[in-house]
C-alpha cells in the first residue's frame, strides 16, 4: 500500500510539472498575429514589396509611380524611359526598384593592365593625329556633345528652379478629415461640399492622369507641378480635363462627387513630393 501511494504521488507531480511546457505551444499563433500587424502597418504600405509591374491599358508612368509611392523620375530612370512624354505600352514590364549594382568585381588587375597601354599609345598619338583627328574628335565629340547637353540642362534648370508654387484651395467647404503619417487611409485631406461643386487646380501644371483606374480614388485627376510635386483630386463625379492638358491655377478640372453612392459629397485632395505624401494644409492659405 505504501508503494502504491508513493507511485501515485510521483505520477501526480510529473503531470503537474509538464503542464506549463505544454501550454507554451500556443506562442507561434501569437507570432502570426504580430506578423499580421506588421504587414498591416502604415509604414509598410509606403515600401513596395514588388520588383516589377506589368503595364495595363490606361496606365501612365505617373499613375504607376503614384500607386507604388515612387518618384516618377526615379521610375523612368530605372526603366530607361525618356521624358518629357514618358511613353509606356500595355504589357511592358517596369522595374519598381533600382537595379542592383555589383560592386565586387575584380577590376583592379584590368585597370593596372590598361594604364600601361595608355602610356604606350600616347606617344604614338602625339606626333601625327594631334593636328587632324585629335582636333576633330575634340570638336565633334567633346565640345558639341557636352556643351549642347550642358546648355540644355542649364536652360531647363533655369526654367524649373525659379518656379515658386503658391497653392490655393481646390474647392470650398469644410475639412472633415486631415492628413496623418501614421494612418494609411489619411494620405491627404477631405473637403466636404455639394454634388457637382467645381474642383479647381490648386496650382498651375500639366495633367498627367485623368481616369478611374486607381483603386480607392474614384474618378481622379493628377496634375504635375515642376519636377517634384504632384497634386491629386479624387472622388469626382465628372472629369473636365484630359491627360496632357496644361492647367492654370484656379482652372476647373472636375465636379465634386462622393466616395460611395449616396454618400456625402467631398473631395479627396492629396499632394506628393518626390513620390511621398505630404500634409497639404501648410501649403494652403489660411481661411
Oligomer: single chain
> From the coordinates shown, what is the CATH architecture of the domain at 174-283?
Distorted Sandwich
CATH topology title of the domain at 174-283: Glucose Permease (Domain IIA)
The DSSP helix count reads 7
**Shape estimate:** globular
User: What is the CA-CA span between the terminal residues?
Assistant: 93 Å
How much helix, percentage-wise, in residues? 25-40%
Low-confidence stretches: 9-47, 124-160
> Which strand-content bin applies to the residues?
15-25%
User: Radius of gyration, Cα only, in angstroms?
Assistant: 31 Å
Let me know the CATH homologous superfamily of the domain at 174-283: Glucose Permease (Domain IIA)
Task: Provide the residue-averaged pLDDT.
Answer: 75
CATH class label of the domain at 174-283:
Mainly Beta
Order of helices and strands: HHHEHHEHHEEEEEEEEEE
By DSSP, the count of extended strands is 12
Class from helix and strand fractions: alpha+beta
Biggest sheet descriptor? 10 strands, antiparallel
Walk me through what this model shows.
Among the domains are: 45-95, Roll (Membrane-bound Lytic Murein Transglycosylase D, Chain A), CATH 3.10.350; 174-283, Glucose Permease (Domain IIA). Helices cover 36% and strands 21% of the residues. It has helices at 2-23, 27-39, 42-45, 61-67, 72-78, 108-125, 130-160, and strands at residues 52-54, 93-95, 174-177, 189-192, 198-200, 205-211, 219-225, 229-239, 246-247, 252-256, 266-273, 276-278.
Amino acid at each position: 500500500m505504501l508503494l502504491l501511494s508513493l507511485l501515485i504521488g510521483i505520477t501526480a507531480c510529473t503531470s503537474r510539472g509538464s503542464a506549463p511546457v505544454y501550454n507554451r505551444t500556443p506562442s507561434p499563433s501569437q507570432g502570426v498575429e504580430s506578423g499580421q500587424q506588421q504587414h498591416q502597418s502604415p509604414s509598410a504600405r509606403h515600401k513596395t514589396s514588388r520588383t516589377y509591374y506589368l503595364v495595363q491599358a490606361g496606365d501612365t508612368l505617373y499613375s504607376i509611380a503614384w500607386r507604388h509611392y515612387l518618384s516618377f523620375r526615379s521610375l523612368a530612370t530605372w526603366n530607361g524611359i525618356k521624358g518629357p512624354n514618358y511613353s509606356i505600352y500595355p504589357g511592358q514590364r517596369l522595374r519598381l526598384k533600382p537595379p542592383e549594382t555589383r560592386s565586387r568585381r575584380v577590376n583592379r588587375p584590368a585597370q593596372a593592365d590598361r594604364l600601361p597601354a595608355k602610356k604606350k599609345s600616347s606617344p604614338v598619338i602625339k606626333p601625327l593625329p594631334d593636328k587632324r583627328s585629335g582636333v576633330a574628335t575634340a570638336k565633334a565629340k567633346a565640345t558639341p556633345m557636352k556643351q549642347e547637353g550642358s546648355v540644355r540642362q542649364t536652360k531647363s534648370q533655369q526654367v524649373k528652379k525659379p518656379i515658386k508654387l503658391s497653392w490655393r484651395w481646390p474647392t470650398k467647404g469644410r475639412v472633415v478629415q486631415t492628413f496623418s503619417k501614421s494612418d494609411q487611409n489619411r494620405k491627404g485631406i477631405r473637403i466636404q461640399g455639394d454634388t457637382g461643386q467645381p474642383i479647381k487646380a490648386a496650382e498651375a501644371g500639366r495633367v498627367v492622369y485623368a481616369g478611374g483606374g486607381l483603386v480607392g480614388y474614384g474618378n481622379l485627376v493628377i496634375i504635375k507641378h515642376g519636377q517634384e510635386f504632384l497634386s491629386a483630386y479624387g472622388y469626382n463625379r465628372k472629369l473636365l480635363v484630359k491627360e496632357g492638358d496644361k492647367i492654370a491655377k484656379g482652372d476647373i478640372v472636375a465636379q465634386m462627387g462622393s466616395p460611395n453612392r449616396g454618400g456625402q459629397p467631398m473631395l479627396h485632395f492629396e499632394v506628393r513630393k518626390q513620390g511621398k505624401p505630404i500634409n497639404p494644409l501648410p501649403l494652403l492659405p489660411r481661411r
